[in-house]
Amino acid sequence: MARGSSGRRPSARAQQRQARGLLVVAAVLCVALVGGVTALVTLVSSAATAPASAADGDDGGWVEVLTDADAPAEPEPEPDAAENDARAADLSLDPEKQTDWKLDGTGEKTVYLTFDDGPSDNTPRVLEVLQRYGINATFFVTGHEPDKAHYIKDAYEAGNSIGLHSMTHNYDEIYVSEEAFFSDLEAVGNMVKEQIGFVPYLTRFPGGASNTISANYCPGIMSALVDDVQARGYQFYDWNVSSGDASGTNVDVETLVSGSCVEGYTNVMLLFHDSNTKDTTPDALPRIIEYYQERGYKFEPITREAFVCHHGVNN
Ligand SMILES: [Zn+2]
Questions:
Q1: Residue ranges of the domains in the chain?
Q2: Residue 205 C-beta-side C-alpha neighbours within 13 Å
Q3: Which of 101-110, 144-153, 299-308 bottoms out in mean pLDDT, i.e. has the lowest?
């Protein structure tokens, strides 16, 4: 039973004691409340200005903000950004960079799918197949369709390598002289740079290094160009297997599969075309990819570690 239930009035002294007690309790509550609010405000404002790294368990930035000793540290770059920088550095044209080319690649069974002449309406279809299989390829691009140049960026950002094919792809312009050739190559390089931020070192000659059509315009030009492109820091990549999709418009899938699926190569540098008249090329890709996957090949975009495929020069 509580004492207060007795019904007697408390004495004046007891009332004073009770009032004093209440005042003390109220004062303590006020101090606690003000302190709590102040702490909360401090916490909220600190969290708002703390560097992103604080959320990753790095409390260094937290202390800096509270003491205000230094300006907040720059957020650390995302791992993806660092990887992208390394990739761009590896693939960038650098005239000072004379790589010791690994002509035989890594020694592992590898397929390099390569697509010339794009971008085109078929580029997104090719990218979709590559993404579905979780693999990457290389696109040797042209300036044929400026309104589709953004596909170059899409392809690069999906992990594919971008190489320079030709701005115009007109044999009677680019193979007239070395000066004309490099003027065209620089134009396509600048177009690619607008999309991906750098000029890549990878090139593929229209018609390949073995082409003879260039002899109609400038005898001996290919013999000079194969040395000159490398001296300027580029590397050219021909192919050792052709899908046959250049032999006509929309060549049937069976023909493309049988042309692409061969035996006996450690490195397969496989030629396809990415253009509006090659609708069957993306259709054939899944069977070609599965053929090589079943035989233990991996698929790689061309990088400086890749097999370098050179044709013999005929002009
Ligand atoms: Zn071409």
A1: 11-67, 83-299
A2: 32
A3: 101-110
Averaged pLDDT, 60-82: 56
Determine the distance separating the centroid of ligand 1 and the alpha carbon of 295, expressed in angstroms.
29
pTM of the model: 0.75
pLDDT at 17 over 60: no
Mean pLDDT value of segment 219-233: 96
Give which of 107, 112, 102, 136 is closest to 266, Cα–Cα: 107
Cα distance between residue 293 and residue 234, in whole Å? 31
CATH homologous superfamily of 83-299 equals Glycoside hydrolase/deacetylase (3.20.20.370)
How many angstroms separate the alpha carbon of residue 165 from the centre of ligand 1? 7
Interval between CA 1 and ligand 1 midpoint (Å): 101
Ligand 1 center–CA 230 separation, angstroms: 20
For residue 175, the CA-to-ligand 1 centroid distance in Å is: 14
CA dist 185 and 209 (Å) reads 15
